[in-house]
Amino acid sequence: MSRRNLNHAVSSETSGGGEGSQEKQKRLLQAEAGHFSMVRTLHLADLITELNGFCGFMSVLSSMRYLSDPESTNSIWLALGFMPFGLFFDFMDGRVARWRKKSSLMGQELDSLADLISFGVAPASAAFAIGIRTAADHIFLSFFVLCGLTRLARFNVTAAVLPKDKTGKSKYFEGTPIPTSLLIASLMAYWVSQGWIHENLPWGTVAQDTIFEFHPAVLLFVLWGCLMVSKTLHIPKP
Fold it and tell me: Which domain of life is it from (predicted)?
């Protein structure tokens, strides 16, 4: 897995920038200069981050389209296919921020919100679309999304106090970065290619016809959620 796939998965965790750029953006945001003045405060890297969020939301819409027309298999493939494009833009925003030496607190927040959509809500939506949708499944998928939300919020709060190397970058991730959920998305893509969806989901169901019925496949999301919020799991940055 590439550096961005694993340790550059959240660009706010790796991008740098000067205080002057951040202060300038804060002043522009606070100034009353018209309805669309906020657009002028966005850096190029921020616009690329927006494309990450766009891909995530398009993935969610594609899952919804598949639910409305299960015969349209193209929709579920689009749902799964938009996620890697989100990862590409998530990689590029950090690269552009370092290249232009411009980053911002707003860009950090944008990055976290976009990642939550593309690598939290979108995979959970795709899982629901392919048949992981009992009442208990809802709870487990919600747990996964909330773990991703918590993981991203924790990073934004603790990034400044994590141990740094000589270049000023954090030495490790606490818990797995949320974009690693694409591994689950890749597995779901394989299931779709094999027709292992809906009634044919791997490992079937547990406690069938009860309020506790769930698909064991959803436990992959539970495991990933636990890995994301782990405090003791440290993943070194190359």
Answer: Eukaryota
